[in-house]
């Protein structure tokens, strides 16, 4: 009995791998996916916590296809539901959705298909799932799994609570024996427990994957001169999709206009626009028709676009939760993507005033503080960020600006003393900028009027630039050496800790900031590209253009044809035959059939063009040989013309043959030679190497010919 059970489980996992390859075009599972799938196949409940882009969908889609019956997926966002179903259908999976966007007839049509067992995965909205009529209908079907996507919506502790989600406790009772899988990207421990309790699956296994998104670079830059930094950044990334988050509606409009003025295709998006306009902008972004969106935080929910290559924050977000969620929209395809946060003191003041007006003031205040600490961090940013979410990173990440350019620390006690003493001498009645002006000995009118030019510390820090002073002040603020009275005209006040510095000689360590120009010029964004990279990028761009053409013809989201990750692999490996294309990650059987020819043809033409131009790029050397063969040239002549050995040309012929080119191997070997190779192969076996055959034949037949002979013999079998 137990043995049979085990055999069943192994068989099922084998089936899971077949499905992964056939329908999704992938060869291996990502961390945790296999375990989660195995768990569901064994009929057990689970809670899956994975970051955005971690690959949650496959966790339920695969068991849904392995097991008999239909999988029900509860999903709160209609737009996402449609995208997911389209994506599945694009891979030949029988999927459908039911929600309020459809009329009665459409819904009935799908219900008929369900009854006939023609749907493997059904997405439903919470309203639909909780209607008693529909539930009774579901009970007549064979349900193999219930997946609850965005499960944090269940909990009022979560940040995106939806009341319809709270009525799901009946699922476990009504569908006894059907495994439930709850999935989310954001849930702390309390929320997780709440999810399990409400679904009545307390015993469910929790699969928690790391929150790290190593493909996202993290960078914080001073906010001064943002526009120019952004312009240069975009200039270096032609054709890439990106989101720039701004604090205010007007901010999004202004920035988009400025970008437009500089010839950049950007649009703005905020909640003050009509829903029609907003939908249009989203669509244009998803279809790669608009490259860059300047948006408030209203943008992003419900956008399933895997190739967002950068997310910038023009202004400081109000907490790390929002920040992490927003940057998380970059690089869902797992390819390297950039995030940039611009940090200014002006934003701190603005956000502080929002906090003061909002509820839960202390909590929000604390969160804002942690956000500022992150932006000012002199330690690996990813460590700080993940640490905040309780996910400890052992090593520095190597993909943030602090790791790239570790800050230089020095004894800043005197600087701290000067600043604090200045605060004391203006009797804690001045704001941060004024303190800097006094320290620098500025002759500004209001400074003189207030008599600050008479105090002892006036001009005491004139040797330090205003920019450096403002950076030091922020560090001192973060160290808790003074506070800002947000409720009292933002004046700077001393704290208990200031005393230790002022009177007890406490040492303070500061970090030397790079000047603005150093920061934004030095190692900002550019990496010099090699010729190989440029060629590969050119092919990648050409593949993207083809994808856009197909998307427009078939009115399909480009992502659903092939993702950027897939196109990138194509541009590296350059498959020109369908068989080789199928080996590319993300090329499923169904997609190969639909689009394969057009992509291999493009790669073929690209390589041919390079070969004709005499350019040596990866893959083009074979083409050059092929071209010359087509012209009817002899091998020796080709070798001579190309400055290569004859054996190499034989190698090319073997390669071309394997790539599926039209070459007749028999032309390159005589019958007696072929027999000789056969004797060698018979003696040592097919799998032995060419060297053995070469030696067996006493060097009478060259390596190239042996290879060709072996190929012919192999195929004759
Ligand atoms: P999530 O729902 O967790 O945000 P998705 O399920 O949308 O993530 O997956 C994100 C991306 O990762 C998709 O482009 C998906 O095709 C890809 N992906 C998922 N699993 C694998 C895998 N095993 N191998 C390669 N790519 C994968
Ligand atoms: Zn780092």
What does this protein look like?
The chain is 51% helix and 11% strand. With 717 residues, it is α/β, with parallel strands linked by helices. The protein folds into four domains: 2-208, Rossmann fold, CATH 3.40.50.300; 216-404, Rossmann fold, CATH 3.40.50; 409-513, Orthogonal Bundle (Arc Repressor Mutant, subunit A), CATH 1.10.10; 531-716, HRDC domain (DNA polymerase, domain 1, Orthogonal Bundle), CATH 1.10.150.80. The model has no long low-confidence stretch (mean pLDDT 89).
Keywords:
single chain, 717 residues, alpha/beta, Rossmann fold, Arc Repressor Mutant, subunit A, 4 domains, 7-stranded parallel β-sheet, 6-stranded parallel β-sheet, 34 helices, 51% helix, globular, binds adenosine-5'-diphosphate, binds zinc ion
* pLDDT < 50 stretches: none
Tell me which ligands are bound: adenosine-5'-diphosphate, zinc ion
Number of domains: 4
Spatial sequence of strands, sheet with the most strands: 3-4-2-5-6-1-7
Report the sheet with the most strands, covering strand number, pairing sense and barrel closure: 7 strands, parallel
Distance between the termini: 42 Å
Please state the average pLDDT score.
89
> What percent of the residues sit in helical stretches (DSSP H or I)?
40-55%
What count of helical segments does DSSP give?
A: 34
Helix/strand-derived category reads: alpha/beta
Radius of gyration: 32 Å
CATH superfamily of the largest domain: P-loop containing nucleotide triphosphate hydrolases
**CATH topology assignment of the largest domain:** Rossmann fold
Oligomer: single chain
Overall shape: globular
Portion in strands: 5-15%
Do you know the CATH architecture of the largest domain?
3-Layer(aba) Sandwich
Number of strands: 17
């Amino acid at each position: 009995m137990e043995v049979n059970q085990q055999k069943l489980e192994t068989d099922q996992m084998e089936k899971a791998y077949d499905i992964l390859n056939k329908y999704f075009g992938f060869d291996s599972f990502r961390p945790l996916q296999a375990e989660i799938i195995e768990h569901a196949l064994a009929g057990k409940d689970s809670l899956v916590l994975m970051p955005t882009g971690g690959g949650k969908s496959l966790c339920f889609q695969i068991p849904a296809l392995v097991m008999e019956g239909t999988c029900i997926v509860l999903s709160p966002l209609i737009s996402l539901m449609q995208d997911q179903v389209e994506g599945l259908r694009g891979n030949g999976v029988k999927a459908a959705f039911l929600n309020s966007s459809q009329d009665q007839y459409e819904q009935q049509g799908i219900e008929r298909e369900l009854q006939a067992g023609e749907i493997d995965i059904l997405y439903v909205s919470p309203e639909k799932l909780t209607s008693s009529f529909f539930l009774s209908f579901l009970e007549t079907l064979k349900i193999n799994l219930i997946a609850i996507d965005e499960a944090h919506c269940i909990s009022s502790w979560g940040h995106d609570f939806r009341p319809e989600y709270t009525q799901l406790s009946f699922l476990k009772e009504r569908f006894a024996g059907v495994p439930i899988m709850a999935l989310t990207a954001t849930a702390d421990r309390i929320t997780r427990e709440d999810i399990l309790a409400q679904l009545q699956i307390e015993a469910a296994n929790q699969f928690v994957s790391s929150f790290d998104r190593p493909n996202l670079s993290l960078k914080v830059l001073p906010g001064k001169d943002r526009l120019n930094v952004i312009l240069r950044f975009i200039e270096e990334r032609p054709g890439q999709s990106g989101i720039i988050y701004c604090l205010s509606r007007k901010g999004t409009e202004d920035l988009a206009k400025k970008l437009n003025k500089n010839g950049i295709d950007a649009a703005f998006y905020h909640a003050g626009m009509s829903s029609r306009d907003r939908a249009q902008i989203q669509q244009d972004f998803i279809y790669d028709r608009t490259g860059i969106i300047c948006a408030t935080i209203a943008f992003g929910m419900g956008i399933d676009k895997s190739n967002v290559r950068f997310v910038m924050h023009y202004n400081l977000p109000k907490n790390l939760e929002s920040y992490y969620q927003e940057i998380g929209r970059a690089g869902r395809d797992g390819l390297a993507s950039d995030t940039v946060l611009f940090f200014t003191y002006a934003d701190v003041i603005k956000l502080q005033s929002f906090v003061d007006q909002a509820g839960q003031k202390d909590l929000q205040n604390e969160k804002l503080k942690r956000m500022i600490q992150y932006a000012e961090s002199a330690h690996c940013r990813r460590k700080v960020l993940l640490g905040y979410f309780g996910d400890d990173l052992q090593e520095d990440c190597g993909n943030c600006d602090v790791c790239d350019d570790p800050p230089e620390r020095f004894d800043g006690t005197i600087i701290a003393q000067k600043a604090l003493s200045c605060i004391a001498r203006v009797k804690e009645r001045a704001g941060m900028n004024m303190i800097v002006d006094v320290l620098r000995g500025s002759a500004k009118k209001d400074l003189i009027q207030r008599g600050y030019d008479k105090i002892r510390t006036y001009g005491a820090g004139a040797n330090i630039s205003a920019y450096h002073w403002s950076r030091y002040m922020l560090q001192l603020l973060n160290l808790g050496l003074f506070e800002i009275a947000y409720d009292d005209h933002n004046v700077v006040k001393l704290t208990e800790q200031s005393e230790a510095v002022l009177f007890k000689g406490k040492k303070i360590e500061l970090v030397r900031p790079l000047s603005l120009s150093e920061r934004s010029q030095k190692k900002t964004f550019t990496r010099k590209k090699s010729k190989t990279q440029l060629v590969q990028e050119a092919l990648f761009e050409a593949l993207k253009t083809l994808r856009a053409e197909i998307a427009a013809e078939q009115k399909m989201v480009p992502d659903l044809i092939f993702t950027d990750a897939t196109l990138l692999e194509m541009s590296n490996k350059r498959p020109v035959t369908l068989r080789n294309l199928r080996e590319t990650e993300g090329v499923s059987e169904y997609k190969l059939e639909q689009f394969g020819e057009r992509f291999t043809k493009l790669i073929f033409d690209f390589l041919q063009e390079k070969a004709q131009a005499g350019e040596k790029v990866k893959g083009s050397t074979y083409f050059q040989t092929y071209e010359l063969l087509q012209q009817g040239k002899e091998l020796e002549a080709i070798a001579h013309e190309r400055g290569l050995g004859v054996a190499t040309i034989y190698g090319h012929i073997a390669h071309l043959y394997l790539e599926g080119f039209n070459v007749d191997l028999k032309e390159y070997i005589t019958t007696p030679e072929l027999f000789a190779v056969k004797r060698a192969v018979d003696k040592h076996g097919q799998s032995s190497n060419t060297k053995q055959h070469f030696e067996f034949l006493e060097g009478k037949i060259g390596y190239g010919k042996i290879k060709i002979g072996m190929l012919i013999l192999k195929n004759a079998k």
